[in-house]
Design goal:
9-stranded mixed beta sheet; globular; two-stranded antiparallel sheet; 11 strands; Stationary-phase Survival Protein Sure Homolog, Chain: A
Length: 316
Amino acid sequence: MRHHRVLPPALLLVCTAALVGTAPAVASPGTAGAPDSTPAASARSARPTAPLRILLTNDDGYDAPGIRKAFERLTAAGHDVTIVAPLTNQSGTGTKITSAPTVTVKHPEPKVWAVDGTPGDSVSFGLAEVFAGRAPDLVVSGTNFGPNVAGLATHSGTVGGAVTALESGVPAIALSTGGLSVPDPVTTVNAMGPTLDFAVKLIDRLRTRARTGPLLPEGVGLNVNHPVVGADGKGTAAGVSTTFQDPQTLLRPDFTDSGDGTWKVEVKVDLRPAAKGGDVEAVGAGRIAVSPMSADWNTGTVDHVTTAALLAGMRP
């Protein structure tokens, strides 16, 4: 899955509208006290009152702190939330779907399903069985422990769960909490609070702007990365940026031959200068990065045209 540095203008407009606060209306001379007839006011008056039915998944496991905090916060916001998540930690599984003929599923408590598989398996089971006959309004994946920016997003199980939802036509948001350094358990868990506060605001904004239509454009999801702010992780982010997935990998594997047919593997952080406007730059500046994403491998229009030019005139 590739997220392109040049986003389609229409998509940028949609995402920017969903993230940027509406400026206060300025009354025309002589109209002080007149009813607010701006588009923002119309959206507020049309705000849906019914809670969303949300399938909540992750890649850290169904009982991880991030998903449990997400369940509590989204439920407190009035949504009807059901956890359908991996039985065990599935970090780094990306978009993998298990091809085994059977799958073990546990139902340890009401509103909680634990699937012995990947996030993709969990979402697939949730859509086919738990939400059979009526798809959820939204799939939320996370919040993940640590960031899913740049190359980390490509291999992320958290993002993979959201992609599986998008493939089935269900709007999806991937949530991650963490900075660009090695995650500290205490501060990262603390930062999940602000992450979920923002998630609630984002979902509310999407509902308001969507009115009775879809929460997001067809096939489009959001990869949200919230930084760790402050010594205790409970600080407020510096702002919100609509970003793209930085093309760098962030991690570099190093292999050492043990001489017996095995190789020792070490993974080192390889942080290069951040691409301007990318998710790495935003999180590094203490801002929330929100990257639109799709569930396919298609490139942007410019890359498509360039490739077509390269192939022009070729014959079998």
